[in-house]
Amino acid sequence: MSDSSSSWELAQGDEIDGGLIAMKLLGGGSAYEACLAFGEKLYAPVVVKVIRPDQVADSATMRGLERECDMLQLLNHPAIVRGFRANLSAAKPYVVLENLDGPRLSSLIRRHGPLSPQQLLPLGSSSALPCIISASWTWSTSTSNRATSSWAPPHD
């Protein structure tokens, strides 16, 4: 059992927020924890990245999640998961991401090396490179290491 101030201690069946039911903890870092949840609105498993309780009042952490939400709206690439919704003003601020079954991006990079810029760019678009470069900090700290396309605004 971890320190209660640094974890929400979500257990299977706990409600994270309206229509998001925790299934299992996936992991996390110093500022966030991620869990597999059932999204009742999508009727599918999703990944919910939640700010840890001891980080909710930290403005830098909140700005980081907001930037990640903004980046999810900008990027649209078949190798990046979709962002479905976020609620940064909830008691447990979170972002809901597409759940993809398979190896983590970090595992693939470790095994096969980094992707070339051509592999990162959407077809026919060189304007995405500055976004991808500026987003690299988000990917390196993201629990799912994936992000994306159309979804609800990041602020509920």
Number of domains: 1
Strand order of the largest sheet: 1-2-3-4-6-5
At CATH level 3, the topology is: Phosphorylase Kinase, domain 1
Question: So, CATH architecture?
Answer: 2-Layer Sandwich
Shape: globular
Order of helices and strands: EEEEHEEHHH
The protein's oligomeric status is single chain
Count of β-strands: 6
Unreliable stretches covering 5 or more consecutive residues: 128-156
Q: If helices are DSSP runs of H or I spanning 4 or more residues, what is the number of helices?
A: 4
Give Rg in angstroms: 15 Å
Task: Using the coordinates above, name the CATH class.
Answer: Alpha Beta
Overall average pLDDT: 79
**What share of residues are in beta strands?**
15-25%
Percent of residues in helices: 25-40%
Question: What does the largest sheet look like?
Answer: 6 strands, antiparallel
Which homologous superfamily in CATH is the superfamily? Answer: Phosphorylase Kinase, domain 1
**Distance N terminus to C terminus?**
31 Å
- Please identify the structural class as seen in this structure: alpha+beta
Any overview of this molecule?
This protein has 156 residues and is an alpha+beta fold. The protein has four helices and six strands; from the N terminus they run ββββαββααα. The chain has a six-stranded antiparallel beta sheet, covered by helices on one side. It is globular, with a radius of gyration of 15 Å. The chain starts with 14 loop residues before the first strand and ends in a 15-residue tail after the last helix. Residues 128-156 have low confidence and may be disordered.
